[in-house]
Every structure is written in C-alpha cells, then in structure tokens.
Write a structure and sequence with these properties.
The protein is mainly α. About 75% of the residues lie in helices and about 0% in strands. The radius of gyration is 12 Å and the shape is globular. About 20% of the residues are buried.
Length: about 80
C-alpha cells in the first residue's frame, strides 16, 4: 500500500468514526453501553470511533440495530463526511 492509499484509508476510517460517534451521541449512549448492547468489547467501539479499526459489516448491522439507524444511510453520511 502506498502513502496515498494509506492516507485515503485513514480518511475513510475517520469519516466512519465520526458518523458512529454522531449516531451514538444522538441516542445518548456511552461507549460502554453501546459495546454491551452490541455484544462487543468497549475497546472495539473505542478503536472504531478513533478510526484505528475498520468497521466490519456484521458489526455495522449490529450497531444499526442497537442505535436504530439505517446502515445504508449511515454509509451515505460517512461518505459525505469523507468527501468534504
């Protein structure tokens, strides 16, 4: 992976992270509560929200259930953040 690809990947992760934080905050949940409801560790939620971990599709759908959002709309919003 060259530097440009790495930079783009980091920007995509940052956009997804920001969108997840926004969805979680809108529901008034902490990272601990969100992790518990989604059946994952708190560190998983923290790392995704920090842009240090990719968001697996299965976890995206579980978070969509927990936080009550549409996965397609979530990705559209994340893409819009990425393109800014």
């Amino acid at each position: 992976m060259d530097q440009n690809e790495a930079t783009q990947r980091d920007a995509i992760r940052a956009a997804i992270a920001a969108q997840l934080r926004a969805e979680r905050a809108a529901k008034g949940l902490t990272q601990i509560e969100t992790a518990r409801l989604a059946g994952v560790s708190e560190s998983t939620i923290i790392r995704v929200e920090q842009g240090k971990r990719d968001l697996p599709v299965a976890l995206l759908f579980e978070l969509a259930r927990v936080l009550d959002f549409d996965p397609a709309a979530f990705m559209d919003a994340a893409q819009a953040r990425f393109q800014r």
